[in-house]
Amino acid sequence: MKITCIGHASILIEAERNILTDPYITGDPHSGIRIGELPRIDVILLTHGHGDHLGDTVRIAAEHGSLVVAPVELARLLGRQGVKCHPMNFGSADLGFGRLTMFPATHSSSITENGVPVYTGNPCGYVIRAEGKKLYFAGDTGLMAHMSLLADEALDCAFLPVGGNFTMDAEDAVRAAQIIGARINVPIHYDAMPQITLSPEDRDRLARAGFLFIRPGEKIEL
Ligand code: NI
Ligand code: MN
Description:
Layout: E1 2-7, E2 10-14, E3 18-21, E4 43-45, H1 51-54, H2 57-64, E5 67-71, H3 72-79, E6 85-88, E7 92-94, E8 99-104, E9 110-113, E10 116-119, E11 124-130, E12 133-137, E13 157-161, H4 170-180, E14 184-188, H5 200-208, E15 219-221
Parallel strand pairs: 3-4, 4-5, 5-6, 12-13, 13-14
Antiparallel strand pairs: 1-2, 1-15, 2-3, 7-8, 8-11, 9-10, 11-12
Helix pairs in contact: 4-5
Bound molecules: nickel (II) ion (NI) and manganese (II) ion.
The site of manganese (II) ion has 6 residues, from α1.
């Protein structure tokens, strides 16, 4: 299984089926890959409706024929735009590549239409089980007690937001990593906008706690 950090909260998981999380690519000045350089995307996992996560979903789904997994209300909204969706609501499902569990996140979820926020269900994260590996993609979330439920999962890798303000900051992400106990912790959701810029101290704190920084466009083997 190959993991590429595309940028922000967009992670490409190349396995038997290629999975892409929260594909914010054309809007992200730090994106490590151009949208046309993506391999075949079989599945897109969406954590919530905010623009820096919904991103290029509709375009990629149309070009690749991808299945989009999303909270029910967001799936319904995308379905009306012709996107092939699999709605979930904090259950688990076998989607042909392995088992997927929708996991809670403390955040909000909406899209803005004519300046007004439109509800797009509850925000979430995902536990992804594929090819004998177990990954946790947290999405946008604050530190929460639910994370202790993941301690028994013996996760291979956790993708945790670290930028603060809208999600956990570095200090909370280190606590989350201690609670969750994944073998590898990868920081996401930082530096894309001024409010979530990591200070050198935060970067050190995360590095000392063993977080593995993956540069945009960089690929690791899991
Ligand atoms: Ni958000
Ligand atoms: Mn976000």
